[in-house]
Amino acid sequence: MEESIKISTNDNNIIDGTLNYTNDKDDKLIIFVHGLSDDKDHRLNFNASKFFKTKGYHTFRFSLYSGESNGRILEECSIGTFTEDTNTVIEYFKGKYKKIYLVCHSLGFVVLDCDLEGIDKISLWDPALSLKKNSISSLTYIENLNSYIIN
Question: Please, what are the domains in the chain?
């Protein structure tokens, strides 16, 4: 099933999002944060949300800017705006799910500046920043994945 959700921001804008869910009461939510030139319906997040729904997760993808009525306009946004809006989305779902995960593509790395209390895991897909071992205190290299994991 799919539901359109509109979340109000502190400065009277609207965050437009789509919740995909099953009929089962699930306690796990994946929130997708898109990249700079994308929106909630970009094929990467759109297809991933459908995939994870088949694995038993509810998913929420939202647009950091949409151009819709009361939606943000890219040219009027900053990294701080994206961080605040992502915090607003996280806060909206806290208490509704036992586990919340973030999946962030490219510019979505702004979540690293968010209030991550209550977030269980983060996955950065092609982050638009260079992660260096000494820049994050709890970084572990997993050889068989050829990847770093932030603990």
Answer: 2-150 (3.40.50.1820)
Q: What burial class does residue 135 get, using C-beta atoms within 10 Å of its C-beta: 0-12 exposed, 13-18 middle, 19+ buried? A: exposed
Read off the pTM. 0.78
- The helix/strand/coil state of 122 is strand
Q: How far apart are CA 47 and CA 78, in angstroms?
A: 27
Length of the chain as a residue count: 151
Contact by Cβ (8 Å): 118, 90: yes
Burial (CB count <10 Å: 0-12, 13-18, 19+), residue 141 = exposed
Euclidean distance between CA atoms 61 and 86, whole angstroms: 11
pLDDT digits (tens, 9 = 90+) for 86-141: 999 999 999 999 999 998 877 766 777 777 788 888 887 776 555 554 555 566 77
